[in-house]
Amino acid sequence: MATFAEELRLRRKLIDIGKRAVALGFVMYHQGNFSIRLPETDHILIKPTSIPYEEIELEDIVKVDLNGNIVDGLHKPSSEVLTHCMAYRKYPKVGACAHVESPYLNALYAMDKDVPNVLGNFVYLFEGKGLATGPSLRSNSEKFAKATLDAMGDQYGVIWKNHGVFCVGPTLEVAFDRCVAAEQAARVYWLTLALKAGEPSLIPPEVQDEMVEAIRSGKGGG
């Protein structure tokens, strides 16, 4: 059971990560959403809907159960709460979820271009699996949430085309780091395409295998 002090710490973390996302240009105003599982409970903390990150206070963070029902909060939870909750129900080891609307990822996938393993951190943080591509459906529904997680499978992130990326992790830092690594790889890939010199050289498969083994043994990553 999370203590009061632990819950306050996690509420601060949600606010801090949201502000980092704004600073990096991954979200604007009140876009995107983040959540954290409260340890040893069936509750999660999630960003409130429609409040700019610069204005969110500790008491504005919403606590919901794993079905999205409000347990404690002054506001409605994020409109993507159903996808977050379904991720926690489906993957017991997931401790946090992050959704951002990063521009390079959105641009590439709008052109039907998957981000390849062009950068080391992208390989490390996604264990060489890259990003899944999710459904072209209206979000904020059980149908959308199920289709998203069916598409993600054993990967750690999924693209919502014309929308953004949704990543999971054992902690919010890891989930957000995956968003960062995905956008960084997308930016590099976009720049290589802009040079109009053909597709870029990727990390050789055997090196990717070594990197994945390193990260799984705790010896890799930036």
Overview in brief:
The protein has helices at 4-23, 81-90, 103-110, 120-125, 142-152, 172-194, 205-216; strands spanning 33-37, 43-46, 62-65, 70-72, 96-100, 132-133, 157-160, 164-169. The protein is α+β, with helices and mostly antiparallel strands and 222 residues long. An 8-stranded mixed β-sheet has the order 4-3-2-1-5-8-7-6, with helices on both faces.
Largest sheet: 8 strands, mixed
Strand order of the largest sheet: 4-3-2-1-5-8-7-6
Q: How many helical elements?
A: 7
Stretches where pLDDT is under 50 for at least 5 consecutive residues are none
The level-1 CATH class: Alpha Beta
Superfamily at the CATH H level? Class II aldolase/adducin N-terminal domain
The amount of beta strand, in percent, is 5-15%
**How many domain units?**
1
- The N- to C-terminal Cα distance equals 32 Å
- Overall pLDDT score: 95
* Helical/strand content category: alpha+beta
User: What sort of overall outline do the alpha carbons produce when their principal axes are compared?
Assistant: globular
Helix content: 40-55%
CATH structural architecture: 3-Layer(aba) Sandwich
CATH topology: L-fuculose-1-phosphate Aldolase
Strands, total number: 8
Q: Over all CA atoms, what is the radius of gyration? A: 17 Å
Reading the helices and strands in chain order gives HEEEEHEHHEHEEHH
